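Hey,

The postdoc asked me to send both predictions to you directly instead of through the lab channel. I've kept everything plain text so nothing gets mangled by the mail client. Protein one:
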Amino acid sequence: MAPSHTVRILDGNNFVVSEATGDIEATPTEPTGLFSIDTRFLSKWVLTVNGERLNALSYDDLQYYESRFFLVPGLATHYVDAKLSIIRERAVGGSFREDITILNHDEKAVDLEIRMDAGCDFADLFEVKDEILNKKGEIYCEAEPDRLRLGYRRGNFKRETIISSSAPARYDRNGFAYSIHLEPNEQWDTRIDVQTLALGPGGRDLRLGLQTHGTERLALQHDLEEWIAKAPTVNSEHDSLSATYRKCIVDLAALRFSPLSLGGQTLPAAGLPWFMTMFGRDSILTCLQTLPFTPQLSATTLRILAALQGTRFDDFREEDPGRILHEMRYGESAAFEEQPHSPYYGAVDSTPLFVVLLDEYEQWSGDGALVKELEQECRRAFKWIDDYADLVGNGYIWYERRNTDTGLENQCWKDSWDSISYRDGTLPPFPRATCEVQGYAYDAKMRGARLAREFWDDPAYADQLEREAAALKERFNRDWWVEDGGYYALALDPDGRQCDVLSSNIGHLLWSGIVDDDRAEQIANHLVGPRLFTGWGVRTLAEGEVRYNPIGYHNGTVWPFDTSFCAWGLRRYGFAEEAAMIANGILDAARYFDGRLPEAFGGYPREQTKFPVEYPTACSPQAWSTGAPLLLLRTMLGLEPHEGHLAVEPRLPVGMGRIEVLDIPGRWGRVDAFARGRVDLHSLAG
């Protein structure tokens, strides 16, 4: 991830990451630059005045898609009253625009040489992520009288960056320059347009450049205002809750991604910088988190995932009939099948979660037409669960990658190589079955039964799904329960041996409903106990386990999205105070990140740190971290659709004060919800 001092602006799949001066000097291993459709279109963008680099006084984060930098010549250590000031204002919205203003504060006229060094390595995002830049095509540069054209071609795969300026400039292979004369108190301005050209297989034009920049900026501003206006209003006596909520709504707007096949409709991209594209699991879980606030994301997500549902057996892409995709990419490595993401299907949870989202969306929206439209896709998803995912033949969902070169080893949400282990720290063989995926399958079948009975006119199929769900629940509670720990195992190996560590996955089991009622209290106690709960959130792996590491990616960090589903699970089983306790921790943590929760943060105990410890490579903003405060709001207020109405049963932490959520959309029209804190967290913690 880019260092924390970088400045980021984004609009869906298009984003710019730069230094605090606005300059970009990317190396093959750093995700700085202008990126679009998984390609870096600018890797060098350095402004100088009379050959001198500039020093940043400050920058303004104007909107998610624009920023402004205030600069002076010279290094900060040598600063004296500057006679020049430079303002760089930039925006991304399809592509990239930068306005440069130079002001002469001197009592005499000045002659200046202004230069922008520009270059591009056209790195595929996977090349940057894997720290390997190995271009197999041709990089070219053409300095034309009125523009600079930087390009890359490899067969019929072509990417170009086209740079032009409103003020006359001299273009060369390494950038462009201006010679200007400024009288006292005079200013000079220019607008630089950077457009991108992308040709896909067969020469298909995927051009994403800005067409009329003033119009584009106004359109982005209008779109953001409309997006905010459609979302419910949250007012709170809690110091930062309303600000965190607004930040989340704006970040969701920023993360909206329009796949090339959708004609402008959007779904949430997973996160900046590595995952600004469509992910099955991430998009579905984000939609579930945000349904009461941005329900329009769900229908788009369901439709595009249904359209790309697997239809054949393909070992390279790990595709099966009925399987829902994991990830879709548009860069060079996917185009030339050096990576399988065109699309890649190596996830075992996105398929049952697809059905879960469809049912949850219908309960909120009343959109029965979409349920009927996607009936066959749901039936194919269940067939995948029963026929293709059960690699061992014992009724569970398993995974073992078929693409052994570039496929994912772990195909659950904890997808790092060492995230699944036995209690002694060793790693199990493949295939593996993780516990939360079985819960998702149970939930999908119970929800699918409702859809079959109420919308597909197939009560026999509904009965079948309910029988299968009941059998799965009975089997699961027998095979996965760790008797000497009082919790469910993280996973099973192919011989049925338990990966018997204590993990946050047990919270997902509560959310799914697969936990036997007489065991729910033990699970709740673990989730708020000191081994899992840090005071800020729930650790991915419990303190005391051999592989526990408070800054291990899936082995001890806190993931806000994960914690939010744990809270939702606690609430489902009636542990409202415990859910409020967890929600309070994450919302407190959000204050230290200015309302923008990162992908993950350190799992250190709260009493050990005055603030949550940043995880060094966490994505930010990230969709399901952005969705976490929204799900926690739903959980604290007890918002649930019930028989066509919105039920509200609030349970807030002490100190939260009054919360009101106004204009909650759903099949009921728009309604308001109000709550006041009343839970004694201190007695719970004790």
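Protein two:
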Amino acid sequence: MIQKILIANRGEIACRVIKTAKKLGIKTVAVYSDADRNALHVEMADEAVFIGPAPSNQSYIVIDKILDAIRQTGADAVHPGYGFLSENAAFAEALEKAGVTFIGPPVGAIQAMGDKITSKKLAAEAGVSTVPGHMGLITDADEAVKISDQIGYPVMIKASAGGGGKGMRIAWHAEEARQGFQSSKNEAKNSFGDDRIFIEKFVAEPRHIEIQVLGDKHGTVLYLGERECSIQRRNQKVIEEAPSPFLDAATRKAMGEQAVALAKAVGYHSAGTVEFIVDGKQNKFYFLEMNTRLQVEHPVTELVTGLDLVEQMIRVAAGEKLAFGQGDVKLNGWAIESRLYAEDPYRNFLPSIGRLTRYRPPAEGTSADGTVVRNDTGVLEGGEISMYYDPMIAKLCTWAPDRLTAIEAMSEALDSFEVEGIGHNLPFLSAVMNQERFRSGKITTAYIAEEFKDGFTGVTPDAASAEKLAAVAAVINHRLQARAIQISGTIGNHTRKLGKDWVVNLAGSDHGLTVTEGTGNTRVAFEAGNELVIATDWQPGQTLAHADIGGETLAVKVDLKGPAIRLRWRGMDLTARVRSPRVAALAKLMPEKLPPDTSKMLLCPMPGVITGVAVKEGETVEAGQALATVEAMKMENILKAERRGTVKKIVVKPGQSLAVDELIMEFEG
């Protein structure tokens, strides 16, 4: 068996591999850059080796630095995780020459299937249905436009060595094809050191379903069911589940057998994933690509099969035969995965960086009702989210006997997940979990674009939810006031009395109510006639309130903002102001403070680096015209003009680092 594994990766996946290695009694080595000196994976590993500056092209994807770390530590095997060098054939070949075991597929399979163009040609030769497109490499933007015109819009412009949504653009017309080609090329070069680009037809409303395969070095290849990965944003997966709510047994079997045949054609061993685009109307599936590595979303497969895929990869790499056959693979229950990203959903999901001032995931394990919560993460409270790497913080997973129960378990887990200090997508994930369309399983890759056409602005509470949250705010206020009147040293006949009548202003509406403390609960009677009985152990200072309201348990995040109470629950982010009736009446007379006018300014929407300015001072720009490019977390973001105007002043230069809302340029009136 392998004695010591070096994990050529960082963050969540490095921590994930270390957990299984420890279970198997195998020692581990972490590598880290300047940005990761205090990272969780460094703390968890038995040894750690510094490999260079923060940018990945100076550390994590420099093969010589990884090889040097192997020599320093005597590691006899390497697990590449996903991303970085995980699908780099030259890296696998270098390990082979050094006599180090690569915990992954053979070099030939990586070369054949890791390259999207080659893999599509091989799939076509094997009789696998593929999406129409141009299989050759594209040299410049003019050729990209010509080919796109021939294929017919919309088209997908993709990096040949891409993955994780990097180096991918959808173009709906010639100008977008031109811009998308250059951005994809730049992202591909920065992320993978390979700027080759190809173009294929974009199927507008498909499902993205992938098959997990697992093979050993003795010729056995199995499929372990499928994962539904259709909930995507900017071609990056956000929510995954296993199995798919769409596939029937016959289609699952056909896709699985085709995936196995493709893997066998290239002599595949280890874990891998064959991705398909599935036509939701005609039930046809088309080969998309094969990922010759462990997928980010592998936990949902583990939860429904009971297998540890990292353990299987290690055993296969050590030369062991698979201890089970295709007939032994059973899909049990349902699993959901939500990716927690460091991005601000209220700012069009732009990257967010900074320190995690609070990071409290929900408790992992099996609950009393049999549901399971799992959280794969690579961060600690107090840690910093860097601009140099992927914005994923954690992967929250739930399992239950059926899909709706798994979704409800996920909703409850998201409610209990506390993250502060950065922008994050927890409220968005909660919103999706509670949408009727998602719960029905009628999803496509266009789901987010269709359901959130104008972006995400939070969830507006219905009348019942607003009443529950108003009652929670009233109880919190009642306990704060009760503590305040206990201050010692006051004059006896000047002790303040705790009132019962309050007005809660929430979501633009006033809720007049009366609060009465009972034995073990608090009764909240609304002027409108409804009455709620709340049982909660919340005390001042706590940031999470668990409240039982009529048999329903709510986990509400609580943040005191001066006299106001911020409440977050099920994607709602509301500020409650609890006042006495007299103060509430006076508050209505207060003038509203308007935000400053920024309509004549282009502000940086995220922390990042200006990589290009496309206009000059005095130039007249049209709506939709590119103004500047900002790079953050390995993604290029083109900032465009919202309307026609003249550039008055440009205050930045390429290479300059900017914070959120920092000025880039001004326009004349």
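Summary for protein two, as requested: The chain has 17 helices and 40 strands.

Thanks,
C.
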